[in-house]
Structure formats: structure tokens, C-alpha cells
Amino acid sequence: MAQGKIIYVMGASGVGKTRLIDFARRKLDGKHPVAFAHRYITRPLGKDAENYIALSKGEFELRKARGLFAFEWQAYGFAYGIGIEIKTWLKAGLSVVMDGSRAHFIGERASIADVVPVLVTVGGEELRRRLTRRDREDAQAIEERLRRAGEFAIADLSLLTVDNSGPIERAGEAFAAIIAAQAGER
Predict the structure, then answer these.
(1) 3-class secondary structure, 83
(2) 6-37+93-183 topology per CATH
(3) DSSP strand pairing (95-99 vs 53-54)
(4) Count of alpha carbons within 13 Å of 175, Cβ hemisphere only?
(5) Packing angle between helix 17-28 and helix 168-183, nearest 10 degrees?
(6) 35-44, 107-116, 118-127, 152-161: the lowest-pLDDT one
(7) Is the pTM of this model over 0.90?
């Protein structure tokens, strides 16, 4: 059985990665050898639509010290991790969809084998509208996220891009097709 691939989803905060991942999860619903990883985050559970596991800083550091993260990074004052369970899923022939970080990807690209990088984009004014609508940050934090949105250029020949500026169905279908194609290549 061939090992699966990591489908590494990234994009600026507010581009709609969570909605795309949720759309693809529902669309694919076990029809392809794909597993969707959840993130461990040192952010308390709130209004987020994301299905993540909230950890205290102490819990996160303990898990990190014990080697329980396949990937981990820092952003916006929080720690993020993807659990080592994805290694088992990959060995079992499943491709793994994960919500990652552009900065982490750039820094770790050389060490991530069998990866399909997917960049989710959205226009600048639409991004501002979405960040404001989700009501998670104050105006200053939104400006910081907008500034950071343009900071990272992903220079990877295998990079795939999904424009999520329009209806979720359009971008969601395109994203689900990418996942299905990548999961079916083994």
C-alpha cells in the first residue's frame, strides 16, 4: 500500500480555509482515502467554525516536549500543532488534509515529503470584510492580519491555488477536486 500525501492548506487568516475544508469533508465523505486533521491550538474555544482542540500553553508544551506533534508553529500569539496521528494515517495509505501556516510551510518545505501545497486566496477588500464580520479581533488586530496577508510568497513549483473570493460552492468544488485527484494518484 502506497503512503498517502499531505495536502497542506494555507492562506491568510480570513480567506476561508475552514469553510473550504468543511465543504470538502462533506463532499468527499469517505469516497476517497482521505483523512482531515484537526489542529491543537492554545486559543480558547470561541465563535470559531474550526473544529480544533483547545489546549492551555502548559498542555501544548507538554505534548511538544513528548514529541506528539508532527508539525508545530507559532502565529498571532498562539501555538498551533498537528498531531503525530497523521503519520499513522499516511502509512495506512490515507492522504491527510491539514490547515497549516504559510510561514511554517516556507520554513519546513524541504523536510515535508509527499506534500501537495494548496494556497487559498481572496481579494483584499473581501478579506477585510470577512475579518471584520467574524468579530474575533479588534480593528488593530485586523489591520495586522491584513498587513501579514501580503507578507508571504510561496515559491513552490507544485503549489496549487484556490480562489475563494466568490461563492463557497465554486471554490469548494475546486478544492474537493484537488483532494480527490491527489488521493487517487496512488
Answers:
(1) strand
(2) Rossmann fold (3.40.50)
(3) unpaired
(4) 33
(5) 60
(6) 152-161
(7) no
Cell numbers 524541504 label which residue? 110
- Of the two residues 68 and 113, the one the predictor is more confident about is 68
Task: For cell 515559491, name the residue.
Answer: 155
Joined together, the cell numbers standing for residue 20 give 473550504
Rounded distance, CA 33 to CA 40, Å? 23
d(CA 94, CA 90): 5
Q: Is 185 exposed, middle or buried (0-12, 13-18, 19+ CB in 10 A)?
A: exposed
Give the E-state strand segments of the chain in sequence order. Answer: 6-10, 34-36, 39-41, 53-54, 69-75, 78-83, 95-99, 115-121, 160-163
49 within 8 A of 22, measured Cβ to Cβ: yes
Whether residue 100 contacts residue 13, with contact meaning beta carbons closer than 8 Å, is answered with no
29-72 per-position pLDDT tens digit: 989 999 999 999 998 887 666 778 999 999 999 999 999 999 99
